[in-house]
Amino acid sequence: MKILILSADDFEDMELFVPYYRFKEEGFDVDVAAKKRQKIEGKHDYEIEANHAFDDINPEQYDMLFLPGGKAPAKVRKEDAALQIVRHFMDKNKPIVTICHGPQIMISAGVVQGRHMTCWPEVSKELKEAGAVYEDQEVVVDGNIVSSRMPSDLPFFLREVMKKAKVAV
Amino acid sequence: MKILILSADDFEDMELFVPYYRFKEEGFDVDVAAKKRQKIEGKHDYEIEANHAFDDINPEQYDMLFLPGGKAPAKVRKEDAALQIVRHFMDKNKPIVTICHGPQIMISAGVVQGRHMTCWPEVSKELKEAGAVYEDQEVVVDGNIVSSRMPSDLPFFLREVMKKAKVAV
């Protein structure tokens, strides 16, 4: 199982690191990609090395895509290379798991039409306008998409994410 | 499986929350105790409600004790009620899992003599002086005690903690 995380500075620290450590606990390979290959810093000052740039990613090599939240997705959504990665996962029906503001990236990639999803409350208007069926739940699973709202949803999110990961191996 | 966390203000946020969410993912009951029943805040500004005071805890009700790190253990170790809880777990041979500065609480409880353990590097001198056999490893398991050094050890720590949790249920 090889997992790709797309993020940027000002990620929500728990939303990135709690799944990151969970994947590592399970023995999965995890890569973090950002606009450039560099250290990125969360809203709460935790740092992680983005060991790849979006441009250098071959999405064929990954089994699951994880889009954490915070203010990072507002930056990631502006990057065509990142949106191409999202579209690859949708085209191949591989799992995309996302929380909080992460769905903004999927909105910009144009892949949420008709899909049941949740997100950070303030993103819900935009998600609905893009054609998704918004649900205010701890976690929503619709086919290859798993979505949650906020850090306190992480246990619910990870239960469903781990099910997808174990099927997708 | 019922787990008790002992902490205080200035806990290391990832060290408390990553295991906390992991336990919740697994469906375990988790209580957080502090000197007083109140909200406590981590070094990185995450907050959690301590839903019990040390004085109100009946340790018989818990299967595992978790002592996260940061600057909180320096406060917790001064509280007799907290040290009595630690001694209960040692007397009953129930799992105590700890990371970073957490072992300081076990040192003050007088329970580390002859035990193989690890901790935050700067705590190692004190740990050795208290009679423990210090090992610089991601995770050290010695009977009922599981210990780790720092946030980046969390995946290794949780692998061993989850084994103890599943046996202890």
The proportion of residues in beta strands of chain A is 15-25%
Biggest sheet descriptor of chain A: 7 strands, mixed
Oligomer: homodimer
In CATH's first tier, which class of chain A applies? Alpha Beta
- Gross morphology of chain A is globular
- As laid out across the biggest beta sheet of chain A, the strand order is 5-2-1-6-7-11-10
- What is the mean predicted local confidence, pLDDT of chain A? 97
- Beta strands of chain A, count: 11
Look up the CATH topology of chain A.
Answer: Rossmann fold
Please estimate the helix content of chain A. Answer: 25-40%
Considering the protein shown, what is the CATH homologous superfamily of chain A?
Answer: Class I glutamine amidotransferase (GATase) domain
Element layout with pairings:
2 copies of one chain form a homodimer.
Chain A: E1 2-6, H1 13-25, E2 29-34, E3 39-41, E4 47-49, E5 52-53, E6 64-67, H2 72-76, H3 80-91, E7 96-99, H4 103-109, E8 116-117, H5 124-129, E9 133-134, E10 139-142, E11 145-148, H6 154-168
Parallel strand pairs in A: 1-2, 1-6, 2-5, 6-7, 7-11, 8-9
Antiparallel strand pairs in A: 3-4, 10-11
Describe this structure in words.
2 copies of one chain form a homodimer. By secondary structure, the first copy, chain A, is an alpha/beta fold. The first copy, chain A, has a single domain (2-168), classed as Rossmann fold, CATH 3.40.50. Chain A is built from 6 helices and 11 strands. Chain A has helices at residues 13-25, 72-76, 80-91, 103-109, 124-129, 154-168, and strands at 2-6, 29-34, 39-41, 47-49, 52-53, 64-67, 96-99, 116-117, 133-134, 139-142, 145-148. In chain A, the strands form 3 sheets. Chain A has a 7-stranded mixed β-sheet with strand order 5-2-1-6-7-11-10, sandwiched between helices. A two-stranded antiparallel ribbon of chain A has the order 3-4. In chain A, strands 8-9 form a two-stranded parallel sheet. In chain A, a hairpin with a 5-residue loop joins strand 3 and strand 4. The radius of gyration of chain A is 14 Å and the shape is globular. The model of chain A has no long low-confidence stretch (mean pLDDT 97).
